Amino acid sequence: MKRIVASIILLVIIVAFAGVSYKYLTIRKGSHVYFMKKSPGTFDRVYLDVSRWSFIDYGIHPKISAFLASKGIQKNGNDWKKELEKKIDSAKDEVKSLKEKASEN
After folding, report:
1. 28, 23, 18, 31: which is closest to 64 by C-alpha?
2. Distance CA 27, CA 67 (A)
3. Cα separation of 53 and 29, whole Å?
């Protein structure tokens, strides 16, 4: 009886994984994992690792690029604006200090 129950549970797990891989593309980027819904459900692509992709690879696959870009924007929100403002402020300070050094000489 235990073998029958274990077999049924194993079968349910396998069917669940098959359903997910049929409807979603699993994308790994570094330590993050994303699930992109496939428009026509297929078993063509199930898993994709984009950790070492170059700009050319992203250009070849625009749907995946757009999906990852949308996930990055949603995740970071306005953090990139704050980071950019910090960089601009530090650059202004550096330019100001260089002007002061030039005026001393």
Report:
1. 28
2. 10
3. 9
What count of other Cβ atoms lies within 10 Å of the Cβ of residue 10? 10
Would the pLDDT of 74 be above 80?
Answer: no
Mean pLDDT of 56-83: 78
pLDDT of 80 over the 80 cut? no
- Inter-CA distances, 12 with 5, 19, 37, Å: 11, 10, 22
How far is it, in rounded angstroms, from Cα 89 to Cα 10? 58
Q: What is the DSSP string of the chain?
A: -HHHHHHHHHHHHHHHHHHHHHHEEEEEETTEEEEEEPSS--SS--EEE-TT--HHHHHH-HHHHHHHHHHHHHHHTTHHHHHHHHHHHHHHHHHHHHHHHHHH-
> Given the DSSP bridges, would you call strands 32-37 and 47-49 parallel, antiparallel or unpaired?
unpaired
